[in-house]
Design brief:
Layout (H helix, E strand, L loop, with lengths): L1 E10 L2 E11 L6 H11 L19 E4 L2 E4 L5 H7 L5 E5 L6 E3 L2 E2 L2 H9 L6 H4 L10 H5 L2 H4 L6 H5 L1 H5 L6 H12 L6 H8 L14 H5 L6 H15 L9 H16 L4 H8 L7 H6 L1 H9 L13 H14 L16
Parallel strand pairs: 1-5
Antiparallel strand pairs: 1-2, 3-4, 3-5, 6-7
Bound molecules: iron/sulfur cluster (2 copies) and FE2/S2 (inorganic) cluster.
């Protein structure tokens, strides 16, 4: 069949532009096959990465019809069926990474952020007296999902948090971090959880947009792995540390306010999170300029109306809390930065 492949092209000496190729090709083949045909028969200067051609090496991740995907995994027929433009497929480089040429991006930040989470089993754990470190099948099974990662970068390219916050280490790095937290051979779990428990670079920097889960080609489900780290952090916190951590307080206050009124009373939100329920006077004072601006522009509600369904919402939250009595707030420590 004949169809059009429109490719976002770019070179150091030329700005970005779209170029369209008309191809005669079997639609059961992959997007990568189409790119190889263009490079072989139409334009040898087209640049893209590939190696295994079989969803193993992770090198062919790019943006296909607006979403991150592996070119060797997507069939032409399926992409045409979902394409917003009839008989045309749009290909662009991965998002959130600088373009070197055409579909080849500079992955340096991706690797540096992976390295920032210390992605190796601790050295101490390798000093075992016997020949091997035994794990039970159930302990090993906890590593399966994150162990599937082929470091393709699809999740990183689609991550909303990375797009607005360059400090955020990214879903790939936190999926790897979750693997180390769950690994029974590792002896640095406490230090790791302390390191990942940060508002900007760590797990609390994730906006829970679900993009990483949607695009991951091998089922790592990075958001689920991030949630596992959060649960481990929450499970470690104590009453003594409860009120020190702003990211965790943010989560707790949201829940409190929804339980109290059915939705979030924004007037209370800042005072309880930033002002720590009036315990942090500096935090309370820091809210004054914002409060004044809102008041002047008529955006500071003087009354708060509870939601009509508040009683039902309260019942649902109470029932869930009774099922999870160990959920607590935790402590926030200093962050980490990519090397
Ligand atoms: S988590 Fe999935 S999408 Fe992200 S780098 Fe690993 S394999 Fe790719
Ligand atoms: S869920 Fe979190 S980590 Fe995943 S893409 Fe969205 S912001 Fe990024
Ligand atoms: S070429 Fe290896 S994953 Fe696509």
């Amino acid at each position: 069949m004949t169809f059009q492949l429109t490719i976002r092209r770019q070179a150091p000496d030329r700005g970005a532009y779209w170029q369209t190729f008309e191809l005669e090709i079997d639609p059961s083949l992959t997007i990568l096959d189409a790119l190889i045909q263009i490079k072989g028969y139409y334009d040898g200067s087209l640049s893209f990465r590939k190696n295994c051609r079989n969803t193993i090496c992770g090198s062919c991740a790019m943006t296909i019809n607006g979403r991150s995907a592996l070119a060797c995994q997507q069939s032409i027929r399926a992409e045409l069926a979902n394409s917003p433009v009839p008989n045309q497929i749009a290909i662009a480089p991965l998002g959130n990474l600088p373009v070197l040429k055409d579909l080849v991006v500079d992955m340096s930040a991706f690797w540096q952020k992976l390295s920032a989470v210390n992605p190796y089993v601790s050295t101490a754990a390798r000093q075992v007296p016997e020949r091997e470190f035994l794990q039970s099948p159930s302990d090993r099974a906890k590593l399966n999902a994150s162990g599937n990662c082929i470091l393709c970068g699809a999740c990183y390219g689609a991550c909303n948090a990375v797009e607005v916050n360059p400090d955020f280490v990214g879903p790939h790095a936190l999926a790897k971090a979750a693997r180390l937290v769950a690994d029974t051979r590792d002896s640095e779990t406490d230090q790791r959880l302390e390191q990942y428990n940060t508002a900007s670079s760590g797990v609390w920097g994730c906006t829970r947009c679900f993009n990483c889960n949607t695009v991951c080609p091998v089922g790592v489900q990075p958001l689920d792995r991030i949630s596992e780290i959060k649960q481990a952090i929450l499970a470690r916190s104590t009453t003594a540390t409860r009120n020190l951590d702003r990211p965790l307080r943010h989560r707790q206050v949201l829940l409190e306010l929804v339980k109290e009124g059915g939705w979030v009373d924004e007037r209370q939100f800042g005072l309880r999170v930033v002002g720590n329920h009036f315990r942090d006077l500096q935090g309370v004072v820091s809210l004054a300029p914002l409060g004044w601006r809102l008041l002047r522009r008529g955006k500071f509600p003087l009354r708060f109306e509870k939601s009509a369904g508040q009683a039902q919402i309260q019942a649902v939250i109470t029932a869930l809390q009774q099922r999870q009595p160990s959920s607590k707030m935790g402590v926030h420590r200093e962050g980490f930065t990519p090397s």
